[in-house]
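pasting for the record
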Amino acid sequence: MPSYTARELERESGFDRRTIAYYVQEGLLPRVGRRGPRTRYPQPFLDRLLFIRRVRQAEEEGDVAPVSLAEMREVFERIPPALLAAVAKGRIAVTPELVSSPSTAFRMPEMPGGPVAARESTGPRSPGAPRAYSRARRRLDRMRERDAAELAREAPEAPADASRGVEEASIVREAPALRAELWSGDEHEEPGLASLLALLNRVARARTERSDGHVETWARIRITPEMVLSVRGIDEEDGDLVERVRREIRRAIDRR
């Protein structure tokens, strides 16, 4: 079985070392013991990285609703390695059924039941499609509930005289609280584009200020095939916020 160095993993997957280390920490990638310059990583390690990359691309194209890291872990626990590898290599498309609840429709092409999942994506779906929007809304509602629960359980109350510097330094840790604040209004009331962009800017600025300064990372958010939004300092864990911003910008464009 092939194995890869850390540098080869970066090149093959498109993720930098910090993101890969974060995925290991979150339980998305198998631990390989003590890491060092000579450590080599097995093929399943790269397959999972490529699978995540394919899912994120499918999200950008509107083929699937946002997938949280916790949900990604459940996918890895559920699907067989052969199916995971086929998706990673692009032989099987990423579909909503693949990244949601278990489905007998997902079989390898050579298995009985037909190659239901062996189709390739024919292009982005309309972001305004009712069924796709309904799925995304339900998923984001679940994210809100988790964020609110995390806020109530973990977030300490800030002192009344806390300085702006302390607030900026802790904003990354309190991102769930900020999202809960945005979504604390009427159930049918969505945060506007301006509010989402303001939150994205605050999170990005705080992450940039907390970075070691040696590596500058930029996230590319594809709005349309002709438009890409670049944000400095955004991490994979901000994926739900990034997806909301992308969707709201698309809606604003489509309304014109």
